[in-house]
Amino acid sequence: xxxxxxxxxxxxxxxxxxxxxxxxxxxxxxxxxxxxxxxxxxxxxxxxxxxxxxxxxxxxxxxxxxxxxxxxxxxxxxxxxxxxxxxxxxxxxxxxxxxxxxxxxxxxxxxxxxxxxxxxxxxxxxxxxxxxxxxxxxxxxxxxxxxxxxxxxxxxxxxxxxxxxxxxxxxxxxxxxxxxxxxxxxxxxxxxxxxxxxxxxxxxxxxxxxxxxxxxxxxxxxxxxxxxxxxxxxxxxxxxxxxxxxxxxxxxxxxxxxxxxxxxxxxxxxxxxxxxxxxxxxxxxxxxxxxxxxxxxxxxxxxxxxxxxx
Length: 310
Description:
three-stranded parallel beta sheet; (rape) hypothetical protein; Elm1-like
C-alpha cells in the first residue's frame, strides 16, 4: 500500500504530539496565560476552516462578533453596558465604542458568576484530603480571602484596615480565622493584615507557602469573607452554599458593582460590616454556573448528533 510523504510527515507529527502531550499542554496553558486574547482569533479561525467538524465554545465575551462561535458562555454582568443605568454613565459619543453593543443572542449562555471546578464532589474530596489540618480547629471556622485591586474595584490600605477592624469586632463569635492572601495582594494591604492580626492566637495568615490550603478552606470553612474585587473568589465561595460576606463592594463600579448587586438580590452574599454574629448560619442555593453551562453544551452537541464521553 502506498502512503504519501505528507502522510508520513503527519504520522511523525502525531507521534511527537503523543509522546510530549504533557509538555505540550503546559505550553498551551502558558501561551493562553500570556496571550489569551489571541485564542479568540485562533478559535474563530478553526471554526471558519472546519465548521462541520468542530464546536467552538468561547468562555467570556470575546468583544467581537459572536457569530464566530457555536456557543458563548459569559457572565450576565458582561451585558451591564446595555442597561439604562450604564447608558446614563457613558457620554453619548462614546457608547458605540463600548462592547457588547447588542443583547445576547440565542447561542449565548449567561452565568451569574465565573466558571470554576468547585462542586459538591470536589469539596468532599478536599474535606478528606485536609482533614488532619482542619478537623480539630475551633468552630466556627471563618475563612478570609483577599484578592487585589482591579480597574473597576480600587482600594488600598484603607480597606485592609476596615477589614481588620471588622474582623477584630467579630472575633468573639469566631472559633478560628484563616486568612489567605493572593500572590498579587499589594504589600501595603498585607502589611496592615499582619500588623493588626499577625499575633492574634485565633488567626492564621497564609501568604503563599506550599501547600496551598485554598481547597481545604472551601471545604472546611463555616463562613467566608471575601474582598469585592474578585469575581472568581466570590463565585467559588458561593458554590459552597455557606454564608459569604463581601467587603469593599462600595469600592467597585461598572459591571463588577452589577455582579455584587445581583448576588445581594438573590440572598447569596451579604456585606461584611463587623457587626455580624459569625456563628449564625444561613444558606442559599449554591451557585452552579459550571454545571448548568455544561448541560447547555451537551444539549447543543446532542442537537448535532454528537455526544461527550462521561
